[in-house]
Specification:
The complex is a heterotetramer, with two copies of chain A (127 residues) and two copies of chain B (412 residues). Chain A is an alpha+beta fold and 127 residues long. Helix content of chain A is 50%, strand content 20%. Chain A contains six helices and three strands. The chains are: A alpha+beta (127), B alpha/beta (412). The complex binds pyridoxal-5'-phosphate (2 copies).
Chain lengths: 127, 412, 412, 127
């Protein structure tokens, strides 16, 4: 299974992540880390009329974590906030092209979605 | 009757200890309230961990460490469900004592102020008495102690009186390790909550012996020990209501319980990890989970009714002896399988020692419950306690042993 | 060389885990700094306890309980002598983390006042950092952190500067779990004592790997963990100088740690029992004692020199790789068998994961030492660590594994 | 072995202990207990010119503990304080007529001597 993790899709997004950087005028922003591993992800979103207009991320992490953030940000742009809040592990695995993942690596893969959701919730609270 | 004994024979075969001879005699183990024996299933689960996946948890990416982490978290879910809790509401501790101290240090230090009232009872084990006494002393709070009746029940009036003081915390035991008394945890918890206090339950003597659900009872915290319920030593648990655990400051600090530490700044980890500093007792958790499976396979209702039967039988024989004083309620609906007693003019040590020559293991002393001893004006008591592997033969051996005590000390 | 490898083959046969396949490959276990493996001698000692004398200690008069008590106290004496301490100076704890917290809570709360200085270092595991940080916050004391040099040694000038502040406590590690650095514990302890402070040593990474004597070192407290030295999880120890332990208030309260409790009055038990509340991990202590016997039979000098040899070999190969960054001193006289490293452009997780596909178990992450990570400006590192059952073949497997990492990530 | 403990000597001294009670004018007094068992012994001594003139005890305990206190007080009356401070487990076992004793029971047997010594030390401190 492990060898699967390092296919071109993931390695490409790790080396050249999409949407890496900061947003000009984010409406929501959140940062979190995985305990015991050192992965840190920050998401910045701009939501307009319940839609994700733009999203960017920064952070450090392993290939799975960074690729997940990169693929996720590509995927959610233009989506309704509700739809994104409904996303879960199967969606992230599908984006990564993985059938399954071990629990420790799942934490890496899922951190970006977790942080994204929190940034959206924060956005809503402020609105 | 016969059915029970066959059951017990079958159970005993799972416990290697019963092939031991005690002073050359068959071991009659009547000290499970101190610590229970372990079935081969638990022993093997611990050994399997050592031999097949021993590694540290939560931090390893290699296969073996993932397996260990999974096994540790599966154990948490399994044990949590056994007591009616969610996995994230179960903190692993060394034993019930540490669990109670955790509440006193973390919740207590953060919430108790000068002049506040903390309530405990005369029936408590030192582990559910001293942490509150120290907390009270440190915070200049008042420790109020609910009385017990001559029969050995919590005194309802005394409880009411203490609740009227508007306490912050009420800590009481579900089942007494000396008197055997089983308190109506659910009823008391409701009154405690109505009085606006936090309800801390000591489940050390109830979780091993009867169905217990924290959700059903409605307590805020509950402590228990693995070694009293067929599990290994060095592992126990604290149930805490999620919102409370969330809001509490950590207790021990170190590895595993943080998200980020920089020289200037610290972020604590999520519940329950926030309370599990350092390398946990992984093999202990796995062993305890196996113990829970064993108890589940017997059914906690069976465990309770089996012990009730033995206790009723033992009490019926013991009350006939005029030179034997039995403490605690005589109604088996109100009590568990713990019988404390004294033989007139004979110190409890001597009772225990003479029973040992017959292969019978009981405990003697104050049972870490000196306030109970004071209440009955006795320095010590002998105590026999039953569990799943005991049967009527064991009760009869106990009674015969007491006869020998009386002979040696020429008690009429 | 050949001699060593034969020794290791012989040792490996004592460890059942090595018959496991990791991802279908021979297990190359390079994560002993997280937790060590257990030899069959330890596994059997624990099983024997369960099967033959499992009972609670200190309170039973029957034969089996006397045996358990004896075994528990023999374990204490044996482990104490292994670290150059007297039995009554060894308190059993769950792990090193609890031991360090005990000192911070008990000695710390009783002795540290507002404005006092507490010193720790940039090199510490969170377990020897957070308890002091919390203590400082609670008491409004100042936490001062000794710097480390680029090479990964304690900065002598920085240490001097902090000692001049007249600290109450100086806590430092004997061996770093990230950099491998071995500090001159004896020399530093003397300077700490001369400065009038209490000297707390974290022995978690030294006691398993080299001869350590607290008497020789002259520290006041030392913490260590059983699971890192071939023993079970859930058991560790705190050495404390007798006079200090005597004078300290208890930490956890409950059963076993008192002489008398009445509702109004409490008398604490003698040292070390005063600090062991509740049912202890008896089987853990017995298992750890057997682990100590195993290490003694190898000789701690042999352990140290064996690891030195492996470390030198590994370092000599790793420094040749320009894309591999190794942290900590390169001189094996100044370091133990822990090697943290990063491969350029590859996150430590990915290094660990790819090595796992080759059956090699290493650790990755911040190793519960985020201040060290901050010091080197890295979010994480991969870490390989050696113990008695590793040999040069394991080192070569590691190097080959790193080659694979570079291939997968196309690192030049 | 255990059966040995309950021979007539010990049982007699347990049922009818010598020197049980209080002294009029003690020069030293000490009380201690065994943890986890509930044995409590108090010793009161009157020392004159380095000699134990009189000694009495009170307390509760098992047969071994009480018999030990009884036999010990009989034995030390008139003895030099130094001699008593030198006494140890073998002396107590000899008084009790026992060849050996298990560690837990040793605590019971030795409590009276331990308390007696403390009462003597206290006496000396005051003198
Ligand atoms: C240097 C050091 N100190 C303390 C600890 C904490 O040990 P434990 O988790 O067994 O409490 C460790 C273990 O990782 C360590 O390496
Ligand atoms: C009622 C009760 N509470 C608490 C405890 C403490 O349990 P442990 O020693 O496992 O911490 C006991 C054990 O004797 C007990 O009987």
């Amino acid at each position: 299974m492990s060898d699967d993790l390092y296919r071109e899709l993931i390695l490409d997004h790790y080396r050249h992540p999409s949407n890496f950087g900061h947003l000009k005028a984010p409406t929501g922003k959140y940062r979190d880390s995985n305990s015991n591993c050192g992965d840190v992800i920050q998401m910045e979103v701009r939501v307009e009329n319940g839609k994700i207009e733009d999203v960017m991320f920064t952070g450090v992490g392993c290939a799975v974590c960074i690729a997940s953030a990169s693929l996720l940000t590509e995927n959610v742009k233009g989506k309704n906030v509700e739809k994104v809040l409904e996303m879960g592990e199967p969606d992230v695995l599908a984006l990564l092209g993985l059938k399954s993942i071990t629990p420790e690596r799942a934490k890496c893969a899922m951190l970006p979605l977790k942080v994204l959701k929190m940034s959206l919730l924060q956005e809503q609270k402020q609105a | 009757m016969v059915e029970t004994s066959e059951n017990v024979q079958k159970i005993r075969r799972d416990f290697p200890i019963f092939s031991r001879l005690e002073n050359g005699k068959r071991l009659v183990y009547l000290d499970s309230a101190a610590t229970s024996q372990r079935p081969v299933q638990v022993i093997n689960a611990v050994r399997r961990f050592y031999e097949q996946m021993n590694s540290n948890v939560h931090r390893g990416l290699y296969e073996m460490s993932e397996e260990a982490t999974q096994a540790y978290e599966d154990a948490r879910s399994n044990i949590a469900s056994f007591i009616g809790a969610k996995p994230e509401e179960l903190v692993f501790t060394r034993n019930a004592t540490e669990a109670l101290n955790l509440v006193a240090y973390s919740w207590g230090r953060a919430n108790v102020r000068e002049g506040d009232v903390i309530v405990t009872t005369e029936m408590e084990h030192h582990s559910n008495f001293l942490p509150w006494k120290l907390l009270a002393t440190e915070k200049n709070a008042k420790l109020e102690v609910v009385k017990i009746t001559d029969e050995g029940l919590l005194d309802e009036d005394s409880l009411d009186e203490k609740l009227k003081l508007g306490p912050k915390i009420v800590a009481f035991t579900h089942a007494s390790n000396v008197l055997g008394t089983i308190n109506d945890a659910k009823g008391i918890a409701k009154r405690v909550k109505d009085a606006g206090a936090i309800c801390v339950l000591d489940g050390a003597q109830s979780v091993p012996h009867m169905p217990v659900s924290v959700k059903e009872i409605g307590c805020d915290f509950m402590a228990f020990s693995g070694h009293k319920m067929l599990g290994p030593m060095g592992i126990g648990g604290l149930y805490g209501r999620y919102e409370l655990l969330e809001a509490m400051p950590p207790f021990l600090t170190g590895g595993e319980m943080i998200k980020e530490v920089h020289i200037g700044e610290v972020n604590w980890n999520d519940v329950p990890y926030k309370f599990e500093a350092g390398t946990p007792n992984v093999e202990g958790a796995i062993g305890l989970s196996e113990a829970v499976n064993y108890l589940r396979s017997l059914g906690m209702d069976w465990v309770r009714s089996h012990e009730k039967e033995l206790t009723a039988y033992a009490l019926s024989l013991m009350v006939k002896e005029s030179s034997v004083q039995v403490y605690g309620p005589l109604d088996v609906e109100k009590r568990g399988g713990v019988i404390s007693f004294n033989v007139d003019g004979v110190h409890a040590h001597d009772v225990a020692q003479i029973l040992d020559t017959e292969g019978i293991a009981i405990r003697s002393g104050h049972h870490c419950a000196m306030p109970v001893m004071d209440r009955y004006g006795i320095p010590a008591a002998a105590r026999a306690s039953f569990y799943i592997y005991n049967d009527k033969e064991d009760v009869e051996a106990l009674i015969k042993g007491i006869e020998k005590v009386k002979r040696v000390f020429s008690v009429e």
